[in-house]
Amino acid sequence: xxxxxxxxxxxxxxxxxxxxxxxxxxxxxxxxxxxxxxxxxxxxxxxxxxxxxxxxxxxxxxxxxxxxxxxxxxxxxxxxxxxxxxxxxxxxxxxxxxxxxxxxxxxxxxxxxxxxxxxxxxxxxxxxxxxxxxxxxxxxxxxxxxxxxxxxxxxxxxxxxxxxxxxxxxxxxxxxxxxxxxxxxxxxxxxxxxxxxxxxxxxxxxxxxxxxxxxxxxxxxxxxxxxxxxxxxxxxxxxxxxxxxxxxxxx
Length: 251
Prior knowledge:
It is a single chain. α5 packs parallel to α6 (128-134). The chain is of the alpha/beta class. The longest helix has 19 residues, at 88-106. It folds into two domains: 2-157, HUPs (Rossmann fold), CATH 3.40.50; 181-245, 2-Layer Sandwich (Alpha-Beta Plaits), CATH 3.30.70. The protein has eleven helices and seven strands. α2 links the parallel β1 (14-18) and β2 (38-45). The strands form two sheets. It has a four-stranded parallel beta sheet with strand order 3-2-1-4, with helices on both faces. A three-stranded mixed beta sheet has the order 5-6-7, covered by helices on one side. It starts with a helix and ends in a 6-residue tail after the last strand.
């Protein structure tokens, strides 16, 4: 699999990477740099990304010595995305990748790659359709590297992202059909930041219209959360009308 990845970079010695600072795109960036490619990372800053993701991306890019371009996109200015239909992910991905392709080509990079891996299921990730339509390449997926492979290789490479939890964009916390607004996104980010500050990890705060929140945590953290119920309510009730917790736990 690694031989195939090395072959990809030998055939594509100049690449742009759609970069999130997550596990997969960080390893892809490392692999391109390690293969001697002329590589540049592109990060899209929109209302859907929490602030820590940009900080993580900047840290990894600096550590690898790869230039990073930060592109600002008003994703809520795309009316179809803000309306939040069931196919929002595809519409959003199309807008983001279109922005990245435009920027990368302006910089002389005609090949754009992303960190989709071999375990990513298109039926669960409608945004993958946009990759095909726009000609964005997914070397990890094409070379048969799954999530466990990427984490193992990232650890061997000494990347700080090797054990970073997967993190979906803030818009995924809002049920389809509920219009996405900056106010709702800000409330979700504030609540998740508060839980992170308490030491919880891999947190999701789901928005429940008209103004409630449901906390999702890994099962191993639920007992701790229950014991700290009063502390959690004190932090989150100023943000949401009512706060509940999913007792089944995040898988």
